[in-house]
Each structure stands twice: as structure tokens, then as C-alpha cells.
Amino acid sequence: MSFEHRRRSRAAPLKNGIKVMTALQLPLFREVELDFIEEYCRVLKPIAISIDRLQGQNAYFYGELLPTLFAVQAKLQDLQASNLRSCSHILQATLLGFERRFSNFLQLKTDVNEAILARVTHPFFKMRWLPLRLTCEKKRIHQLILHAAEELGLLSSAASTSTTEENEDEFFVFSDQGIDNQMDTEVLPSHCKAELETLHFLEDPRKDLASLDSYPLIKLLFVRFNTTLPSSGPVERLFSFAGMVYRPHRRGLTPELLEKLVVLKNN
């Protein structure tokens, strides 16, 4: 960003700031101080936006964690090429601290498999969040989906759901129906059907959650790994209700009764 462009972009805020500082009889900011504030905001903007997103309570899923972390890392790395004059050391320290804190997530270690599954089963992201340096992990992630489904015993559940949907209308009789069903069962066992469904899901261009209805196994995995409590807001509200219930004249309440009263108050 050129000096002239920066000067024009902050002309109006600077003018208002001068009025405020003059009215308060405070010394005005120098040009170097304004440059520092602007660069400081640019460096910490990705962190602030990511925290705000991860604190969301509406339509937020655990699967958004990994893409958010990769997005923050990419934005901080892009800032390194912008030749910051005042906050380059802050940018370097922020990037190093961020990568050290979330190294397991950024390197897709085995201890973050649940975060990977939560992300890849979300129709909006699938494999799109994966950076180029980690494209070699696609095969492992694909196998991770099948292993998780088998470990949780979801292969039989998905197969029974699919069979129920296919046999909703039993009025019509087809002479080759039994043969087709027998061939499907013999040729495509549960794990093969799961692998085929996973491939279709990953190639499906739809991004809305309604598309999960077409993939019963993926939907079960999505519910399993994305049904979390990502925000502390509901818990904090419960603490507020507890303060309303646990008053000085009710100090004799047992923990069990207090818990029931708080739940009733919240609902």
C-alpha cells in the first residue's frame, strides 16, 4: 500500500481524531505513531476475526476450527511479504507463537483426527480447506473416514437406513428385484458401499447441509463429530441463572436441587 493511498484512506478518521484530541487538549499523534497503529491492526486483524468467528453460537460447528487456523496462518504469512516498517517483529512473534501453539492442528497429527473428521464431513469444506503442502494427506483422510465409521459401528446403521428408504414402497413387484438386491449385497459389502458413498460425497459440488440427506453414513459422522459445545456463552448464562437461584436466603440448597432449579430457570 503506497503512502498516498494510506494517507487518503485515513484522512477522514484522522480529521475526526484531530478534533477529539484538540477538544481534550491532548497532544496529536505523530505520523510514525499512526503508521504503527495501522500496521498493528493489520497484524492482529486475522487473530481478532478468527476469535470472533470461533465464539459464534448460531450455525457454528467444530469442523470450522481447522479451516480457521489454516486461514489465519496463510494471512499472517502473506503479511510477511508486505514489508512492514514498524510491526515486523510483532508479526514474527505472533506467527511463531501461533504455529507453536497449534502445531498439531497445522500438521494434521493423529491426535487431532476428530477435528479432521468434523471438517471433512462438513459439505461446505470437504477437502477444500486442505493447503497445497498437505495434499498428500487426502488418502489418509479418506481412510480415516472409513475407519471412524467402522469403529463407531455406523456401517450397519447406514446400510439399514438405506435399505429402509429403498423399500418404502412395497406395493410394486418386479421380477428381477430379488436378483438385483442379491447382487448388490454380494458385490458391494458394507465397507465398499461406505467407500463409494465417501467418494461421491467428496465430489459432490453442493455445499449446503441439506445435501447430507443423500449420504446417510456421512451424515451420521457429521452429527457425531460436529455436535459439540464450541462456545462458553450457554455455560456463562447458566452461571448467571445460578446466581439468581442461589440467594442468601437459600443457602441450604443441595447441589442436586440447585442444578434442577437452574435448568428449570433456564428453560
Jot down its keywords.
267 residues, mainly alpha, 3 domains, flat
What this model shows, in words?
The chain has 267 residues and is an all-alpha fold. The protein has 3 domains: 1-107, no CATH class; 135-166 and 180-227, no CATH class; 233-266, no CATH class. The chain has 14 helices and no strands. The chain has helices at residues 3-9, 11-23, 31-54, 65-79, 88-101, 103-106, 113-120, 138-151, 154-166, 177-187, 190-203, 216-226, 233-245, 255-266. Helix 9 (154-166) packs across helix 12.
Structural class: mainly alpha
What is the number of E strands?
0
The helix content, as a percent range, equals 55-70%
What portion of residues belong to β-strands?
under 5%
Which parts are unreliable, with pLDDT below 50 for 5 consecutive residues or more? 177-187
Number of domains: 3
What are the secondary-structure elements, in order, as H or E?
A: HHHHHHHHHHHHHH
How would you characterize the largest beta sheet?
none
**Shape designation:** flat
What is the C-alpha radius of gyration, as a whole number of Å?
Answer: 27 Å
> Overall mean pLDDT score?
79
| Assembly state | single chain
Distance between the termini: 52 Å
| Helical run tally | 14
